Amino acid sequence: MNTILAVDLGGSGMKAALFGDDGAILAEASAALAFDEDGSGRSEADVGRWWAALGEVAERLGAEADLAAVTAVAVCGLTRTQVLLDGDGAVLRPAIGFRDARAGDVLREALAGVDHPGTAGLNPFHPLARLLWVRAHEPSTWAATRLVLEPKDAINFALTGTARSDAISMHQLLGVMRGDDPLGPRLGIASSILPPIGTPTDVVGTVRPGLPGALGRLAGARVLSGSNDTWTAVAGLGALTPGRAYCISGSSEVFGLIADRAAPAEGLITLPWGAGMWQIGGPGQNGANALAFIVDRLAPGEAPFADRLAALLAQPVSPEPLLFLPFLHGERVPHWDADLRAAFVGLSASHGPGDMVRAVMEGVAFVNRTVLGRAEAATGCRADEVRIAGGGALSDTWSQIRADVLGRPVRTFGGREMGLAGAFAIARVGLGLAPSLAAAADRSGDSTLFAPSPEAMRRADALFPLFGKAHDRLADLSRRLARFDDAR
Question: Are residues 176 and 288 in the same domain?
Fold first, then answer.
């Protein structure tokens, strides 16, 4: 029997679980984490704290199950976060987090007068920009830097003593560091800082003996390379197959279509996600945060969020349509407009709090539909269903609304931690226990399928063009409001 340790390293916490061969969870544990941010654009994390958190969760798991029976470890983690190591493998500074925005000025100076196609798409959040920032502001640190790793790679390195990453997590750096006339070396960033690159299911090595505490009981277990948290969660959904769409619905959402070919689509990100698979879509800025915003204002109090939401949804429904454009925090995919703001359109005296909550749910679903429509048009691939995970998947009402708006079945998985499920699937493939990630993770029997209602679909089809027109009008007004003080 194989016992697999799956770990999900996030910005606010680490989650871990022990899985049996059949996917049953034998034990679970978590530990809190945080980024150090001060409003200046700095966002850093203590890599040592990540290692300590792994020790903590190992102790808790070991109190419930036999860690010596673990045959494989698979870690997924937050991405667009850089860990710098010296030639001895020591961590040189705190990890630079995905929200760190300090590299803008340095990037502009570095690119001044540079005529190179690789500059397209560079911004302060790109890993190359962060490396340029370290070179400019921390020259002694940069002089000692020999490797740049993703967070999950840093954990794997600490477990095994071997540095390795995967092409999906390292896609952005690989794009500027390798190939014909890459941009990074032209700017003085040598490609030798990259570790060996493979696939998420590659075995990095085995857990070295002599690790402290409960981690010592993992000695000899194989460690899989793993990948970033979004890709791994999609793997856990069983959605890594062309013709499926996915939604990772947290405070903000990541939505995309898996296709069998690359295709540029307006406002969407196209990424290679494995052999014969491309992701067309990407991260937005709004999701369950918009729902929390409206519920907290219409029904504040100490009662659990789910109870307050249910009470609002139980109120009578107005027959008059109501649109909500859910851009409380601007938008990334598909509009890439930081100035974009939210608005209700069509609000009347007949609408009650429940109507406003449903409009928020529909508004987020209409953004999903915008992404899906553009991705399908670009690839010629139609999604057979949408698989969804995260906090936004816990509301049956919202899942049904998504199905009606998207015109596709929506499948949810009962709050299962999909990052951990995906890490388990990675380990099963890496151990030779499953032929593919889709086969390793597809647990349709443990899911709930929400089929679109024909009547509700017709209503959504009529409202969707109006939602698009409202966005076009709102975008202009939002930009004017953003510059209101300057215009007076």
Answer: no
- CATH number of the structural domain spanning residue 204: 3.30.420.40
DSSP-derived secondary structure letter, 187: T
> 487: which residues sit within 8 A by CB, 6+ positions away?
480
pLDDT at residue 443 in the model: 65
Write the burial class of residue 432 (CB in 10 Å: 0-12 exposed, 13-18 middle, 19+ buried).
exposed
**Residues 6+ positions from 143 with CB-CB distance below 8 Å:** none
The verdict on 302 and 179 lying in the same domain is no
User: Is residue 83, in this structure, part of any structural domain at all?
Assistant: yes
Which stretches of 204-253 are DSSP H helices? Answer: 229-236
Q: Are residues 193 and 303 in the same domain?
A: no
Kindly state whether residue 433 falls inside one of the protein's structural domains: no
Q: Which of 210, 186, 187, 205 is nearest to 195 (CA)?
A: 205
Measuring CA to CA, how many Å separate 314 from each of 317, 321, 354, 358, 398?
A: 9, 18, 7, 11, 14
First and final C-alpha spacing in the chain: 71
Count of domains in the chain? 2
- Select from 230, 254, 269 the last residue of a domain: 230
Answer whether residue 389 is part of any domain: yes
Instruction: State if pTM tops 0.70.
Output: yes
Range of the structural domain that residue 389 is part of? 241-412+453-487
On whether the CB atoms of residues 240 and 273 are closer than 8 A, the answer is: yes
378 residue type, one letter: A
Higher pLDDT pick, 482 / 68: 68
Same domain for 210 and 306, yes or no, is no
- The two tokens of residue 485 are 């003080």
- What does the pLDDT look like over 155-168, one tens digit per residue? 999 999 999 999 99
Q: How far is CA 456 from CA 7, 141, 463, 464, in A?
A: 40, 58, 11, 12
Residue (of 409, 410, 413, 369) closest to 390 by Cα position: 413
Q: Which of 456, 457, 372 lies closest to 407 in space, CA to CA? A: 457
Tokens of 428: 């099963």
Q: 310 with 212, same domain?
A: no
Q: Where are the beta strands (DSSP E) in 207-251?
A: 222-224, 244-249
Task: Give the model's pLDDT for residue 444.
Answer: 62
What is the distance between the alpha carbons of residues 408 and 30, in angstroms, rounded to a whole number?
35
* Residues 29-76: tens digit of each pLDDT: 999 999 999 888 999 999 999 999 999 999 999 999 999 999 999 999
Closest CA to 346 of 333, 359, 336, 337: 359
Q: Is the pLDDT of residue 469 over 80?
A: yes
